[in-house]
Structure formats: structure tokens, C-alpha cells
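User: Last request for today: this protein with adenosine-5'-diphosphate, please.
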Amino acid sequence: MSDKKLHHCSFCRSHKDEVTKLIVGEDVAICSNCIDLCNQLIVEDKSPKSPKKQEEIIIDPYSIKDHLDGLVIGQDDAKKVLSVAISNHYKRINNPPTNLEIQKGNVLLIGPTGSGKTLLAKSVAKYLDVPFVVADATNLTEAGYVGEDVESMISMLLSLADGDVSKAERGIVFIDEIDKISRKSESTSITRDVSGEGVQQALLKLVEGTKCRVSVAGKRKHPQGDTVEVDTKNILFIAGGAFVGLEKIVDSRVNQSSIGFGANVKYKNEKQNLDKLSPEDLTRFGMIPEFIGRFTTTISLEELSLEQLVSVLKGIKNSFIEQYKYLFSIDGIELEFTDEALNTIAQNCIDLKTGARGLHTEIERILMPHMFHAKRYVDTGIEKLVIDKELVNNPKSLV
Ligand SMILES: Nc1ncnc2c1ncn2[C@@H]1O[C@H](COP(=O)(O)OP(=O)(O)O)[C@@H](O)[C@H]1O
Ligand SMILES: [Mg+2]
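Assistant: Here's the final one, the structure of the complex with adenosine-5'-diphosphate:
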């Protein structure tokens, strides 16, 4: 190892005075120019790999379900049905039949708040590596009204696909709170005079498959025009909603023969049972028949049980507890929850009817004083923080 060598880039032989920076290792040196070049090569190398990855993704229902099992607690039946629907959808897109028209089957997810509807849809999209957009049905309007018209969802999808139309056309759009645009809802918004039925009508074509022109906001790939045509026929629409009161409608239809009893059925503490759901129940709920007709797969999710909520807290990849453990570990504090504490947190979410959605809020509430004082804990020699039931019920600092 000569002195002279260390003053020159081992790759391009430039002297250190000729370049911005020369990074010297034990036997080699590299200059800033060569680092830039290597960086470019790596970036270029990465991009053509993405489409290849698409083909590698296994879209058989069993593999999809297996993937979902690692991320979504419970909802076993829902995961199975969704996996089959997703697999059929992408099979159809990837192998378009020549002399046969296979109708697109969009998916309707029915389940209480915080049961994992959005999570399911998001996880599937991530697995398939397709662009994914979540839109709130209550923000959508018919064209011509102030607000987001339905085509803005496609515009967002295109933007997420980096302006790549063919990628956007394989994407998934999740429309949340679809039950809030039922005919019966008086208005989707107090500030806008838009009927739910109008929004359903506006969605019909888009959901079934239509060519729409959308703007490509801020994307460089289409500098010549600000709008491009996107065909929605292969875009999968997943609609989700809680549909509060739907089981009563199902029940009253099923129990029509025993009029008088049906009306008195109590639903408290009973799991929502939508096994016998038929499209006409959804129509009676306030969805227009044409709209329902475009969502051929209906999947119902169950309210998560206490044990399942505890699993969401600690028994899953990237669980909340794991995340906060990490945060505290940065300060050098070991965080632990007793089983009793976890059960109490889960029970609070059941009582508040927030499902798993409330878990995060609960944890934040409980850990707030400790996060605030973390530095002081360390200074006073506290290395381990055990959250017990008492600290769940009455979050307070230990210093
Ligand atoms: N079944 C579940 N398994 C794991 N986590 C869940 C589940 N359901 C909900 N969650 C958690 O709660 C959060 C909110 O859930 P979300 O999917 O938005 O519920 P929904 O759309 O049914 O109201 C998710 O981000 C996730 O952290
Ligand atoms: Mg949701």
C-alpha cells in the first residue's frame, strides 16, 4: 500500500485535487465522481426489476390468504373469500379471454369500525404491488357539484402509479364509508346538497368500467398534455362500510313468517350475522340495485373479540406494542405490559365500540406521561417501565 495510491481514485485514477471528495479505505480509494456513477448504475438497475417482481407475485388464493394471516388478525372467512376474489380478478386481467366476456367482480366489505376492512384492502394491494387509493364516499360528489368528483379517485391512482397509465389500470380503489351514501342518508354532507343516490349513480360507470380522462397532476411523464385516458375496466373497486342496522333488515326478511317476533329480537352482545344477506337487503338499506349489482362479492367481517384485540396489540408483525417498545428503547428504557393491562386496554375498545381502531389511541393515552418524562426516568435510574392495570386506568408519570 503506497502513499501515492491513496491520493488517487482506484477506479478512474483521478487525483484527489481533481475531484470534490476522495474516500480512502485501507487499500482502495473512490472519488465522488465514481460514487455518483455507481449510484446511477444502481438506480437504473433497480427500475427494470419492478415489473419482473409483478410476475413473481403468486396470485393463488392460498398464498394471498397466507400473506394476510401475518397481518390481519381473525376474519378467517373474509380473508378466504377476498383471496379468491382477488385471485380471480388478476387471473382475468393477466390472461384476457379471447371469445368470452368475464364480468368484473368488485368487492363489498361489510363490518364494524376497526374490524380491518381498510387494512385487508391495503394489505392485498401491498402484496400485489399495485397502486392503492383510499377514498371516502362522503367526500365524493356528482360531477358538477363542488367537491371531489368520482374521477378524482382515478387521478389519485394515476399519480400513485407515477403517471404510468397501465400500472394505474391494474390498481385497487378502496371506497370507505359506502353505507353513508345510501338513499336514506339525508345528505352526504351538511355543507353540500348532494344526495347519496346521486353519488351512487355517478359511481356506476366508473366501477363497471369506462374510459375517463383524468389529469396527471405534477407528473413529468406526460408533459405534452395535462389529461390522459384511463380505462377503469380492470381497476378493482373495494367498497367498505359498517352498514349499521343491516342485520335487522336481514333478520326481518328471514323471519317474515314469524311476524311479531322478528321485531323483538335483541342484537346486543350478539355477533353480527350476515350469513343470509341477499342483495335485496342492501337495496332496502338504501343502496341502489344497479350499484349493488356491480359488487358481486360481498364479504362480512366480524367484530374482533377481546383475545383478538390483544393479538392486534402484541401478537402481530409491527404490532403497536412492538412499535412503542422500540421508541422507548431509543431512550434506553425497557417497556413491558402485563397481561391484565393488555386485557383492560382491549376491553376499553370493546366498550367504546372502536374495535382495533381505538387501540392506538388507548396506547397513546396510557404512554403519554411516560413518553413526556422518558428523559427524566433515565436520569433517575429507571430502566424498565411496566404498564399494569392501574397505570392503564390512571396514566400518570412515575417521577
Ligand atoms: N383484524 C385486524 N387485525 C389486525 N389489526 C387490525 C385489525 N382490524 C383493525 N386493525 C388495526 O386497526 C386499524 C384500523 O383498522 P381499519 O382497517 O381501518 O378498520 P375499518 O376499516 O374496519 O374501520 C388498522 O390500521 C390496524 O392497525
Ligand atoms: Mg376503514
